[in-house]
Amino acid sequence: MTFNTLSVIGLGYVGLPTAAIFAGRGVDVLGVDNNASVVEGVNRGEVHIVEPDLDKLVRDAVSAGKLRAATEPEPADAFIIAVPTPFTDGNKPDLRYLMAAAESLGPVLKKGDLIVVESTVPVGATRAVSERLASLCPNLRFPHQGEDASAESDVHIAHSPERVLPGHVIAELTRNDRVIGGLTPNCGKRAAALYDIAVEGQCLLTTAATAELVKLSENAYRDVNIAFANELSIICERLGVDPWEAVELANHHPRVNILQPGPGVGGHCIAVDPWFIVDSAPNDSALIQAARTVNDSMPAHLAGKILDAADTMSAPVIACLGLAYKADIDDLRQSPAVDVVQHLAAAEIEIILAVEPHIETLPPELEGVRGVTLAELDAALESADIVVLLVDHSVFKAIDRKRLDGKQVFDARGIWR
Ligand code: SAJ
Hints:
By secondary structure, the protein is α/β, with parallel strands linked by helices. The chain has helices at 15-24, 36-43, 54-63, 96-105, 125-136, 169-175, 185-196, 208-239, 243-250, 273-280, 286-311, 336-346, 377-383, 394-397; strands at residues 5-9, 28-32, 67-70, 78-81, 114-117, 156-159, 178-182, 203-207, 317-321, 351-355, 372-374, 386-389, 408-411. 40% of the residues lie in helices and 14% in strands.
């Protein structure tokens, strides 16, 4: 079971680090992305995402001749699909990128190849990939078509969800245990042999459907737990109790571990994946749906409190510190902080100074929005009447509290208590 060549489809937050790590272990890796500027950048040894240690890993792999990139797949022993699986406006899984990636492999697939879907997908999607490819490659036998000892499939397909935490991707890619769900047991074994090259954690074998649900459950579990913390913070507010102190004290109990309340849940995973479960089981997922509603309601709740304060001032200047979806990263996807700023702008606040040290231009949602400008931290603190802390970036934790004197402060992350 040797893998001399690997192709990683999708060079984003997961695909690019994965490609670089396998290349670092001596595999000849081709990264495939339909964005030509990403491909050109990787071929120059450059990265387009902020992730600690990734730049050196990619630079070294490219200069060693082990990693290159292209816009179209080429034949390889194994393929890892790591493309986005967003949701539609109606909270339904959008599998267009996944299916397009699968279809792009049709022309290069051959007997003996392995395909691993790493993208987070609803239950049944890995099988759907197999079915789609079978219709494109009638001369090859695919795993959903049945496999026994005498008729092993020509192509092996498995799901092995990525579980890495942005900001810690390189360490987590190698150290985390991997759940590997083969469409057949043989598919699982082959995928485990691939990950053995790069992963120090355990490879835990199961079915594709179980692996799909496990990944969704992990993120839904976190979403539900954050929703508990957020709901508790609203209860605390009503009762005049400091929510962060209450959480900290409750967590001294040996079997209690409440997460941190905040302005809502963002990112491309936890705010999305629970919907994939809801879509598959709408009548059996009341708790998961309620958690989504609680977390999604947090930005409007916070904005309401800020606007109440703004109503007592004439022409207030509001500084919003942080636009990223969480601390010390540049990722603004589904960010509750952006949502809060949108609410303030919609209420016609004249001057909203958005401070986000990790970006150079406002995101599309705020670009050209009346009243909103991207500002430097010092200038924003200087002129603000209201300071809203939205993201617990290290640089904001270091702010001298005296600079907040005389200002109305909304600390949505509890860092200035
Ligand atoms: N958040 C809180 N309070 C908390 C923890 C998080 O409000 O106590 C908020 C964050 O500010 C952020 C959101 O939740 O807006 C999500 O952040 P996160 O750090 O919990 O998770 P992600 O989205 O960066 O990464 C998650 C991880 N999943 C789990 O921890 C179960 C990661 O391991 C997954 O690989 C990743 O989703 C993914 O790609 O699915």
